[in-house]
């Protein structure tokens, strides 16, 4: 077993060195990445080098999934780049974990390291592959929660005589958060010559949230018909959104309560085991 581990570990180590050497040409394209979002980016060259080959190249359904997620999280024109970075991140993590596992197993003649390496490869690979999906899920939740306040503030500002573009900008720069960042992007689009209708429609698409898509769709229709009824529309939408938020918070409360049942059940089982063990001990 030790010989097999040493052979496989040596092969993985040689491949690691070769891929790192080939991947150095990608170092320049990785410098702009944030360390918080892309840890250990110095090793991503391994994944980029693997991606150049036919065996582990980004393609098919996996490519389609990552590109679509990157379009929503980042600028759509850089979606292909970020999808490739995530794929390189996954491959690099898997290769490093497997290499470390087999090398340590062979060096110390302890096969348990192989299991650890495989488990780390599976965990890190899954984590990095699903990271964008989880970020989008978290952003959707935040967008839905913040939407009622956004709509009600816009209704208040427009009731005071402010036009939609100015009200949108006022709300966007009035607070920090994922949905407000998307609104700021819309403001930038408007400043760069994009129409209000197109910018608001793009905001709904980028939010990837059914509630916001529904709201922006109705808002766009209102703009196309004329802006005189927009204030009344926003007032009605504000009332509906606060009702929706109340339902969502109730659902989250129920979900949190159900999650507490598991630890409570484990504690109860633990107490029962202690009581039964003590009773059996006394009987014996």
Produce the secondary structure layout.
Elements: H1 2-23, H2 27-30, H3 44-51, H4 60-73, H5 79-108, H6 112-129, H7 131-159, H8 164-172, H9 178-191, H10 196-207, H11 210-225, H12 230-283
Helix pairs in contact: 1-3, 1-5, 3-5, 4-5, 4-7, 5-6, 7-8, 7-12, 8-9, 9-10, 10-11, 11-12
Summary tags:
0% strand; 284 residues; mainly alpha
Tell me about this structure.
There is one protein chain. Helix 7 packs across helix 8 and helix 8 crosses helix 9. The model has no long low-confidence stretch (mean pLDDT 82). This protein is mainly alpha-helical and 284 residues long. The longest helix has 54 residues. The protein is built from twelve helices and no strands.
Rounded mean pLDDT score:
82
Number of strands: 0
Coarse structural class: mainly alpha
% residues in beta strands: under 5%
Main sheet? none
Short description:
The chain has twelve helices and no strands.
